[in-house]
């Protein structure tokens, strides 16, 4: 019985670690949130409203998941979502 408790604890801890890793690092922000920040920064820097078509195109672009390299893609989206200037957004693309 003691061995089963230990195994249960180990598998529970492993399951929790996988969940935290998935939720913290591999879960991409919503494309709408990323594009809302892009639009906000563009409006702040240029003073011009962005057309609705641009927003739809942006959401379509950032909604596509990559076939390879999910971790860098998620990091890039989080960086763009949190950027305060267009220069910071361009730095995220590299």
Walkthrough of the structure:
The chain is mostly helical. Helix content is 78%, strand content 0%. The protein has five helices and no strands. Helix 2 packs across helix 3, helix 2 runs parallel beside helix 4 and helix 4 runs antiparallel to helix 5. The termini are far apart. The relative contact order is 0.13.
Short summary of the structure?
By secondary structure, the protein is mainly alpha-helical. The chain has helices at residues 2-26, 31-46, 52-63, 70-82, 86-92. The model has no long low-confidence stretch (mean pLDDT 88).
List descriptors.
78% helix, elongated, 94 residues, single chain
List the helices and strands and how they pair.
Blueprint: H1 2-26, H2 31-46, H3 52-63, H4 70-82, H5 86-92
Helix pairs in contact: 2-3, 2-4, 4-5
Q: Please state the CA-atom Rg, rounded to the nearest Å.
A: 19 Å
Shape: elongated
The percent of residues in helical segments reads over 70%
- H and E order: HHHHH
How many distinct beta strands?
Answer: 0
Distance between the termini: 53 Å
């Amino acid at each position: 019985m003691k061995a089963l408790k230990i195994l249960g604890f180990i598998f529970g801890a492993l399951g929790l670690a996988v969940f935290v890793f998935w939720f913290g690092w591999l879960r991409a922000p919503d494309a709408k949130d990323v594009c809302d920040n892009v639009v906000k920064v563009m409006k702040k820097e240029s003073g011009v409203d962005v057309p609705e078509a641009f927003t739809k195109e942006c959401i379509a672009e950032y909604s596509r998941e990559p076939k390879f390299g999910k971790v860098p893609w998620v990091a890039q989206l989080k960086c763009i979502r949190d950027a305060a200037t267009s220069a910071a957004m361009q730095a995220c693309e590299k």
